[in-house]
Design a protein that fits this description.
Blueprint (H helix, E strand, L loop, with lengths): L8 H10 L3 H14 L1 H13 L7 E5 L5 H8 L3 E6 L2 H13 L5 E4 L13 E7 L9 H12 E12 L4 H12 L13 H10 L3 E7 L2 H13 L2 H7 L16 H4 L2 E7 L11
Parallel strand pairs: 1-2, 1-4, 2-3, 4-5
Antiparallel strand pairs: 5-7, 6-7
Length: about 270
Protein backbone atom coordinates (compact mmCIF):
# COMPACT_ATOMS: atom_id res chain seq x y z
CA UNK A 1 0.00 0.00 0.00
CA UNK A 2 1.48 3.35 -1.09
CA UNK A 3 -1.01 5.66 0.60
CA UNK A 4 1.10 6.84 3.52
CA UNK A 5 4.49 5.65 2.32
CA UNK A 6 7.23 8.24 2.61
CA UNK A 7 8.65 9.40 -0.70
CA UNK A 8 11.63 7.40 -1.94
CA UNK A 9 13.15 6.49 -5.33
CA UNK A 10 11.66 2.99 -5.45
CA UNK A 11 8.14 4.33 -4.94
CA UNK A 12 8.47 6.93 -7.69
CA UNK A 13 10.17 4.56 -10.13
CA UNK A 14 7.18 2.29 -9.56
CA UNK A 15 4.76 5.17 -10.15
CA UNK A 16 6.46 6.26 -13.35
CA UNK A 17 6.69 2.69 -14.62
CA UNK A 18 2.94 2.35 -14.13
CA UNK A 19 2.12 5.67 -15.75
CA UNK A 20 1.94 4.93 -19.47
CA UNK A 21 -0.55 7.78 -19.86
CA UNK A 22 1.85 10.33 -18.38
CA UNK A 23 3.42 11.13 -21.75
CA UNK A 24 -0.05 11.86 -23.18
CA UNK A 25 -0.90 14.03 -20.20
CA UNK A 26 2.47 15.76 -20.52
CA UNK A 27 1.23 17.67 -23.57
CA UNK A 28 -2.01 18.60 -21.81
CA UNK A 29 0.00 20.09 -18.95
CA UNK A 30 2.35 21.92 -21.32
CA UNK A 31 -0.63 23.47 -23.11
CA UNK A 32 -2.36 24.28 -19.82
CA UNK A 33 0.62 26.03 -18.23
CA UNK A 34 2.07 27.71 -21.33
CA UNK A 35 -0.75 30.24 -21.52
CA UNK A 36 -2.95 29.31 -18.57
CA UNK A 37 -3.59 31.27 -15.40
CA UNK A 38 -0.94 29.68 -13.17
CA UNK A 39 1.76 29.58 -15.86
CA UNK A 40 1.14 33.16 -16.94
CA UNK A 41 1.34 34.44 -13.36
CA UNK A 42 4.62 32.59 -12.80
CA UNK A 43 6.17 33.83 -16.04
CA UNK A 44 5.11 37.42 -15.32
CA UNK A 45 6.61 37.21 -11.82
CA UNK A 46 9.91 35.90 -13.19
CA UNK A 47 10.13 38.63 -15.84
CA UNK A 48 9.29 41.35 -13.29
CA UNK A 49 11.58 40.28 -10.47
CA UNK A 50 14.40 38.27 -12.10
CA UNK A 51 14.70 39.13 -15.79
CA UNK A 52 14.11 37.95 -19.34
CA UNK A 53 13.48 34.20 -19.35
CA UNK A 54 15.80 33.64 -22.31
CA UNK A 55 18.72 34.83 -20.16
CA UNK A 56 18.05 32.60 -17.16
CA UNK A 57 19.38 29.34 -15.75
CA UNK A 58 16.71 27.24 -14.00
CA UNK A 59 16.55 24.03 -12.01
CA UNK A 60 13.40 21.99 -11.38
CA UNK A 61 13.59 20.00 -8.13
CA UNK A 62 11.80 16.64 -8.16
CA UNK A 63 11.12 17.36 -11.79
CA UNK A 64 9.26 14.28 -12.97
CA UNK A 65 8.74 14.93 -16.69
CA UNK A 66 9.73 18.57 -16.21
CA UNK A 67 6.67 20.24 -17.72
CA UNK A 68 7.56 23.78 -16.65
CA UNK A 69 11.21 23.27 -17.54
CA UNK A 70 10.00 22.30 -21.01
CA UNK A 71 7.96 25.52 -21.24
CA UNK A 72 10.90 27.67 -20.12
CA UNK A 73 13.30 25.84 -22.46
CA UNK A 74 11.03 26.75 -25.38
CA UNK A 75 11.37 30.37 -24.24
CA UNK A 76 15.17 30.11 -24.34
CA UNK A 77 16.07 29.35 -20.73
CA UNK A 78 18.95 27.03 -19.84
CA UNK A 79 17.15 24.32 -17.87
CA UNK A 80 18.20 21.56 -15.49
CA UNK A 81 15.97 18.75 -14.25
CA UNK A 82 16.80 17.05 -10.95
CA UNK A 83 15.06 13.92 -9.70
CA UNK A 84 15.96 10.77 -7.78
CA UNK A 85 13.76 8.64 -10.06
CA UNK A 86 15.77 7.34 -13.01
CA UNK A 87 12.54 6.38 -14.76
CA UNK A 88 11.18 9.94 -14.54
CA UNK A 89 14.38 11.43 -15.94
CA UNK A 90 14.45 8.89 -18.77
CA UNK A 91 10.90 9.80 -19.81
CA UNK A 92 11.67 13.51 -19.50
CA UNK A 93 14.80 13.22 -21.64
CA UNK A 94 12.78 11.43 -24.32
CA UNK A 95 10.20 14.26 -24.40
CA UNK A 96 12.88 16.94 -24.65
CA UNK A 97 14.89 15.16 -27.34
CA UNK A 98 11.83 14.51 -29.51
CA UNK A 99 11.20 18.26 -29.58
CA UNK A 100 14.78 19.36 -30.13
CA UNK A 101 15.14 21.00 -26.73
CA UNK A 102 18.31 20.93 -24.66
CA UNK A 103 18.36 20.24 -20.95
CA UNK A 104 20.66 18.87 -18.27
CA UNK A 105 19.38 15.86 -16.32
CA UNK A 106 20.72 15.19 -12.81
CA UNK A 107 19.95 11.93 -11.01
CA UNK A 108 20.26 12.96 -7.38
CA UNK A 109 18.36 13.17 -4.09
CA UNK A 110 17.34 16.77 -3.43
CA UNK A 111 17.77 16.19 0.31
CA UNK A 112 21.43 15.30 -0.22
CA UNK A 113 22.28 17.89 -2.83
CA UNK A 114 25.86 18.34 -3.99
CA UNK A 115 27.15 21.70 -2.80
CA UNK A 116 28.53 22.45 -6.25
CA UNK A 117 24.92 23.14 -7.31
CA UNK A 118 24.55 25.88 -4.70
CA UNK A 119 23.96 29.38 -6.03
CA UNK A 120 24.18 28.34 -9.68
CA UNK A 121 20.66 29.16 -10.81
CA UNK A 122 18.38 32.14 -11.30
CA UNK A 123 15.23 30.11 -10.65
CA UNK A 124 14.66 27.00 -8.52
CA UNK A 125 11.20 25.51 -8.87
CA UNK A 126 9.08 22.47 -8.19
CA UNK A 127 5.58 21.37 -9.12
CA UNK A 128 3.92 18.69 -7.03
CA UNK A 129 7.02 17.73 -5.05
CA UNK A 130 7.22 19.24 -1.56
CA UNK A 131 3.77 17.99 -0.49
CA UNK A 132 5.11 14.43 -0.52
CA UNK A 133 7.34 15.13 2.48
CA UNK A 134 6.53 15.57 6.15
CA UNK A 135 8.34 18.01 8.42
CA UNK A 136 11.29 18.41 8.93
CA UNK A 137 12.03 17.10 5.42
CA UNK A 138 9.30 19.35 4.06
CA UNK A 139 11.22 22.42 5.18
CA UNK A 140 14.52 20.92 3.99
CA UNK A 141 13.05 20.50 0.50
CA UNK A 142 12.11 24.18 0.40
CA UNK A 143 15.54 25.17 1.69
CA UNK A 144 17.03 23.12 -1.15
CA UNK A 145 15.37 25.49 -3.60
CA UNK A 146 16.93 28.47 -1.85
CA UNK A 147 20.36 26.86 -1.74
CA UNK A 148 20.25 26.34 -5.51
CA UNK A 149 19.52 29.95 -6.44
CA UNK A 150 21.86 32.92 -6.45
CA UNK A 151 21.21 35.94 -4.26
CA UNK A 152 18.30 37.76 -5.86
CA UNK A 153 17.12 34.59 -7.60
CA UNK A 154 13.55 33.33 -7.29
CA UNK A 155 11.90 30.21 -5.93
CA UNK A 156 8.68 28.84 -7.42
CA UNK A 157 7.01 26.12 -5.35
CA UNK A 158 3.66 24.73 -6.49
CA UNK A 159 1.67 22.25 -4.40
CA UNK A 160 -1.93 21.06 -4.04
CA UNK A 161 -4.28 23.43 -2.23
CA UNK A 162 -5.94 21.95 0.85
CA UNK A 163 -8.95 24.21 0.22
CA UNK A 164 -9.62 22.65 -3.20
CA UNK A 165 -12.07 20.04 -1.91
CA UNK A 166 -12.66 18.09 -5.18
CA UNK A 167 -9.07 16.80 -5.07
CA UNK A 168 -9.18 16.06 -1.35
CA UNK A 169 -12.42 14.08 -1.78
CA UNK A 170 -11.02 12.15 -4.74
CA UNK A 171 -7.79 11.39 -2.87
CA UNK A 172 -9.65 10.21 0.24
CA UNK A 173 -11.85 7.93 -1.87
CA UNK A 174 -8.85 6.39 -3.65
CA UNK A 175 -7.00 5.94 -0.36
CA UNK A 176 -10.03 4.22 1.18
CA UNK A 177 -10.02 1.73 -1.71
CA UNK A 178 -6.21 1.32 -1.65
CA UNK A 179 -5.94 2.79 -5.16
CA UNK A 180 -3.96 5.93 -4.31
CA UNK A 181 -0.50 5.48 -5.88
CA UNK A 182 1.35 8.65 -4.95
CA UNK A 183 2.44 7.89 -1.40
CA UNK A 184 2.11 10.51 1.30
CA UNK A 185 0.60 13.79 0.13
CA UNK A 186 0.05 16.63 2.58
CA UNK A 187 -1.58 19.53 0.75
CA UNK A 188 -0.70 23.13 1.63
CA UNK A 189 -2.86 26.07 2.57
CA UNK A 190 -2.15 29.77 2.14
CA UNK A 191 -1.30 30.18 5.83
CA UNK A 192 1.49 27.59 5.67
CA UNK A 193 3.04 29.15 2.57
CA UNK A 194 2.83 32.66 4.03
CA UNK A 195 4.40 31.45 7.29
CA UNK A 196 7.25 29.82 5.34
CA UNK A 197 7.76 33.02 3.38
CA UNK A 198 8.23 34.99 6.62
CA UNK A 199 10.38 32.27 8.19
CA UNK A 200 12.72 32.22 5.19
CA UNK A 201 12.68 36.03 4.89
CA UNK A 202 11.79 36.02 1.20
CA UNK A 203 11.55 39.33 -0.61
CA UNK A 204 8.64 40.25 -2.91
CA UNK A 205 6.89 37.06 -1.88
CA UNK A 206 3.33 36.17 -2.80
CA UNK A 207 1.03 33.17 -2.96
CA UNK A 208 -0.92 32.69 -6.16
CA UNK A 209 -3.36 30.01 -7.28
CA UNK A 210 -4.36 28.16 -10.42
CA UNK A 211 -7.64 28.79 -12.24
CA UNK A 212 -10.36 27.62 -9.86
CA UNK A 213 -13.21 27.45 -12.40
CA UNK A 214 -11.28 25.37 -14.94
CA UNK A 215 -9.78 23.22 -12.15
CA UNK A 216 -13.30 22.51 -10.89
CA UNK A 217 -14.52 21.66 -14.38
CA UNK A 218 -11.52 19.36 -14.92
CA UNK A 219 -12.35 17.42 -11.76
CA UNK A 220 -15.99 17.12 -12.81
CA UNK A 221 -14.70 15.37 -15.94
CA UNK A 222 -12.51 13.11 -13.79
CA UNK A 223 -15.51 12.16 -11.62
CA UNK A 224 -17.61 11.46 -14.73
CA UNK A 225 -14.97 9.02 -15.96
CA UNK A 226 -15.15 6.88 -12.81
CA UNK A 227 -16.93 3.52 -12.83
CA UNK A 228 -19.33 4.45 -10.04
CA UNK A 229 -20.53 7.58 -11.88
CA UNK A 230 -21.07 5.62 -15.09
CA UNK A 231 -22.98 2.91 -13.25
CA UNK A 232 -25.36 5.50 -11.80
CA UNK A 233 -25.66 7.99 -14.66
CA UNK A 234 -24.49 6.02 -17.69
CA UNK A 235 -21.39 6.42 -19.84
CA UNK A 236 -20.43 9.92 -20.95
CA UNK A 237 -17.30 9.86 -23.06
CA UNK A 238 -17.58 13.43 -24.33
CA UNK A 239 -14.94 15.71 -22.83
CA UNK A 240 -15.66 19.37 -23.38
CA UNK A 241 -12.72 21.70 -23.87
CA UNK A 242 -11.78 23.49 -20.67
CA UNK A 243 -11.03 27.18 -21.05
CA UNK A 244 -9.03 28.96 -18.37
CA UNK A 245 -10.43 32.16 -16.91
CA UNK A 246 -8.90 34.11 -14.06
CA UNK A 247 -11.10 35.09 -11.09
CA UNK A 248 -10.55 36.29 -7.52
CA UNK A 249 -11.24 32.72 -6.39
CA UNK A 250 -8.01 31.39 -7.89
CA UNK A 251 -5.57 32.51 -5.19
CA UNK A 252 -7.73 30.99 -2.46
CA UNK A 253 -9.50 27.96 -3.92
CA UNK A 254 -7.56 26.93 -7.06
CA UNK A 255 -6.37 23.32 -7.21
CA UNK A 256 -2.76 24.44 -6.81
CA UNK A 257 -1.11 27.14 -4.73
CA UNK A 258 2.27 28.57 -5.70
CA UNK A 259 4.75 30.27 -3.37
CA UNK A 260 6.83 32.87 -5.21
CA UNK A 261 9.70 34.70 -3.57
CA UNK A 262 13.16 36.21 -4.00
CA UNK A 263 16.17 34.93 -2.08
CA UNK A 264 17.36 37.50 0.42
CA UNK A 265 21.14 37.90 0.10
CA UNK A 266 21.43 38.77 3.79
CA UNK A 267 20.06 35.40 4.94
CA UNK A 268 21.89 32.06 5.06
CA UNK A 269 19.68 29.04 4.35
CA UNK A 270 22.21 26.27 4.82
CA UNK A 271 21.07 23.86 7.53
CA UNK A 272 23.51 23.43 10.38
CA UNK A 273 24.10 19.86 11.47
Amino acid sequence: MLTQQTSNPDLWNQVWNQSSQEKREFWEWVARDSNGVRGTKIQNYIRTHVGAISQLKTIEVGSGLGVFSFILARLGAEVTLLDYSEQALSLAEECFQKNGLKAKFIHQDALALDSDLYGKYDIAMSFGTVEHFRYPQRLQMIETHLNCVRNGGAIVISAPNKAFFPHEILKANLQRRNKWELGYEGAFNRREFLKLSRQLQLSNSKVIGSAFLSDFQRYIQIYRSTNIFQKIFGSNSANSQILQKSTWLDDYFGADLVLLGIKNKKVSYERKS
